Amino acid sequence: VWTTEAELLLLVNKGLPGLPGEGASQIIRFAEADDDASQRPLELLNCVQFEGGSALTVTSTCVPSSGERVRFRFSSCAACLYGLEFPLPPVGSGFFDVVYIDADLRLCKDVRGDLQICKRVG
Known about the structure:
This protein is mainly beta. It has a single domain, classed as Lipocalin (Beta Barrel), CATH 2.40.128. Helices cover 7% and strands 57% of the residues. The chain is built from one helix and nine strands; from the N terminus they run E-H-E-E-E-E-E-E-E-E. The protein has one helix spanning 6-14; strands at residues 2-3, 21-30, 42-50, 55-64, 69-81, 84-88, 93-101, 105-110, 115-119. Strands 1, 2, 3, 4, 5, 6, 7, 8 and 9 form a nine-stranded antiparallel β-sheet that branches. The longest helix is centred in the first third of the chain and has 9 residues, at 6-14. The chain is globular, with a radius of gyration of 15 Å. One of its GO terms (cellular component) is plastid. Residues 1-117 form the Plastid lipid-associated protein/fibrillin conserved domain. Keywords: Plastid. InterPro entries: PAP/fibrillin_dom.
């Protein structure tokens, strides 16, 4: 819904050369596996959508640690441009603190001090 994260704002507002940005989304889910979901790690998927179905997707492992803190480590990154997928190196790790959460909204503050408000969909 809203963020202060400069890189995300740049991609959504300015897009890529020839590809205007259309939006961004974040999904937190259990990682895919055939076993019991309660034993699987969480996965954090961030996606920036561009015109024509192009996208930049970054996937992270995601582990709640203490209290409100959630630690993440980037595990994959790919750009899908004009129907062609290009793998990119996933670089980085960090954490975010869940400052507020209810049935519809989540407010987080990350390791750099950026704020993010996410709305539950579905």
